[in-house]
Every structure is written in C-alpha cells, then in structure tokens.
Amino acid sequence: MDLATKLAIICTCAGVVIGIFVSSLAYYCVRWYKKRSDVDNHRTANIFVRKNGRGQGQGLDSNASLSDSVVVPLPDPAKSLWLNHHNKERNASVSGIPKYLYKDVQKATQNFTTILGEGSFGPVYKATMPVGGVVAVKVLASDSRQGEKEFQTEVSLLGRLHHRNLVNLVGYCVEKGQYMLIYEYMSNGSLEKLLYSEDDILMWDDRLQIALDISHGIEYLHEGAVPPVVHRDLKSANILLDQSMRAKVADFGLSKEDVFDGRKSSLKGTYGYMDPAYISTSKLSLKSDIYSLGVIFFELIAAIHPHQNLMDYVNLAMMDPDGGVDEILDKRLMGKCNPEEVKTLAKIAFRCLHKTPKKRPGSGEISQAIAKIKHRRIAKGSGNMSFIGDDLSRVMSRIEVQQLELGKIVSRNEI
Fold first, then answer.
1. Phi-psi label, residue 223: left if phi above 0, alpha if psi -120 to 50, beta otherwise
2. How does the average pLDDT of the chain come out, rounded?
3. Which of 414, 338, 347 is nearest to 380 (CA)?
4. What is the strand order of the sheet 123-129 is part of?
5. Looking at the annotation, which residues are catalytic?
6. Tens of pLDDT along 295-315?
7. Count of other CB atoms within 10 angstroms of residue 307
8. Closest among 255, 288, 227 to 153, alpha carbons compared
9. According to CATH, where is 1.10.510.10 located in the chain?
10. Nearest 5°: phi and psi at 170?
11. 191-399 — its CATH code?
12. Fewest C-beta atoms under 10 Å: which of 22, 61, 206, 261?
C-alpha cells in the first residue's frame, strides 16, 4: 500500500470522527437550549385579563373601559412569598405591588394615630407617604376574624386585577409580625357611612351612578378576569367613594377564583348579604355576588340596612310590583327623584334576588340595564351634564385605565 493511500485512509477516519463529534455537540446544545426555553416559558407564564369587563358581542356603555386585553405576568411559584416562608422579610415584591418598610408606614401614620375607622380586618389609618401622597393603611388586628390567608388573597388578586371601579392597592407591609395593606385614599369613605348619615343626604343621581359603578366593578371580576373572581363579601361597607363620588369595590380578602370543579365551599360572607342558595348548598358561584348586588341596590333605594330587616320590606314590595317600591323609597328622596327610574332599578334588583341562581341576570346585563336608565333620561331631554358625552366618557375611561397600568409598570421598574 503506497503512502498516498494510507494518508487518504487516515484523513477519511479523522473526518468521520470529527463529524461525529460535531454532530453530537450540536445535538446536546439543541437539547440544552430547548430545555432552558421550556423552563423560562414556565416561569413567565402569562394570564390574560380583559380590562373592559365585558364578554365579546356585548355593547359598551358610557362608563365601560375600552382598553384592549393585557398580559400580566404571574410570579414564579418557586419564589412566591406565600410558599417560601423564609423569604417573608425580603423587600422584593413578587406580586408586582411595592413592599414598604414598617418604619416608613409608622412615620406616615404618625405612629398609627391618624385612625379613619375600623373594619373586620382591623383599624384603618390615613397616611402621607413621601412618594405617592395620601393613602389609607389597613392593619390586620390580632383579634380579627380574618388573617394571613385573607391578606395573601388580597395582595395576589389586586396585583393582577386593575379596573377603575376596583380599589387600587398601592403597597403592603409584612414586618414585625404586622400585616398591612396600603390603598389609594378614598376621601368620601364607605357607601354604608354616607347612605346612613343623618347629616347629609345621598341624592338619587349619586345613588344611580354608584349602582352603575358597582356593577361595572363586578362585571370586570366576573367577565373580564381570567379566571373569573367571586368577591364573596359584597356589602355597602365594602364600597368606597372617591372625591368625585365614584364608587369602587374594596376588600378582596374573602374573594375566590371561580373554578368549576363542583366542590363545596366553606361559608364566608356577611349576614344579610349572603345568597340563600349558597347558604343552603355551600356551592359558591358568580350568581352569589349577583344576589349581594341586588341587596345593595335595595339599600340605595330604601336606605334600610339588611340588619334592620331590609328583606322584609323588599318582600312586601314584591307583592305590589306597581306601587310597592314607593312604600320602601327613602323618605328623604320623596319629590327629589324620578319614580320611574326608581322602579326600573328595583326591577333589576328583584331579578338579582331570584331564588334560583341560574335565573339571575349576569353582571354585564345588569350594567347595560342601569346604563339604559341614564340614557333614557338623555333621550327625554331631562339629563344633566353628568350624563352627556358618551364618546368622551369612553375615551377618558380608556385613558384612565391605561394611566393606571403605566403607573404600575413604572413602580415595578423602580423597585
């Protein structure tokens, strides 16, 4: 065998070996890249939230949000604040909501002396933060019926749910054994406080707008959030009003994502507002919120608290569909409201209280029905400026929601 033949054989063998090596290296590189991509995709799983709070195919009224769907990142379960108890004192906010230091909250509330009131969660303080202005700080009381679980639920939900008719959670604090929630400041307090005030009268126009605002907030929870969310503790005390008298739904500690697994749920809520079907079967559904919504609507009409036998008056009114509502109308509104508008809202409320949950209207249908009350007023030429300019209102609604989202993104980047 001559030298040239031997060199050819050697080169061929070397080429085969090098080829096998390169192919193997490429194979393992591809596998490693795919595996890493799968892990990254899992960690950055997204959840879609429609901000308009309405299912497809339904019209929008003057107060509905018009922004498109957005993608809100879910936190990495492995790093979750709620699953890793050793990391509770870290300043990083896994929910996307800023975490404040105890000393900063203490200073902002003047050592917790600026109390605004107290609820089932605990005392609420007015605070002036160096950045963010005036806020409300809700502190979990040691003897509260709610606890860490409700605190976790509120931070988790409000970290991903944003709507003009939901109260905005701007921060939280977990330090020194204290659990605090920091909200935007709602200067006009709760609907319960205003509705039953002996000093001021909540006029009919405001009550009708409040009913529409609440329905928009619930519509977003039921039809805009994915998965849908059942508030489970809707009541006038959990409806807050800002300086413009616009209503926002608050207190999501008892809220629950609506998972259609057929399982029973432990009874939670407030007596007088709880759905009788939920009480008797322990099966929670979106229609449980609709029942509570109906109770609130009748509160707006009658200014009678559910703990003061509101439903007895409502049942009497049901016996006389034509004149029964006049008998339960808040006496302070006599001659100061349109009787037809009151009766129409009462009919909506009656439907919300239907004993069969499936026959109750959906939240989107309720919003449209209340909006029509206001639209009829415009058509009759008796509307005021708050009911004019639907197109402008829609544009402003969209801008408000987009500004809220932009603020959230900026605050996360600053952290």
1. alpha
2. 79
3. 338
4. 115-118, 123-129, 133-139, 178-184, 169-175
5. 233
6. 999 999 999 999 999 999 998
7. 10
8. 255
9. 191-399
10. -100, -10
11. 1.10.510.10
12. 261
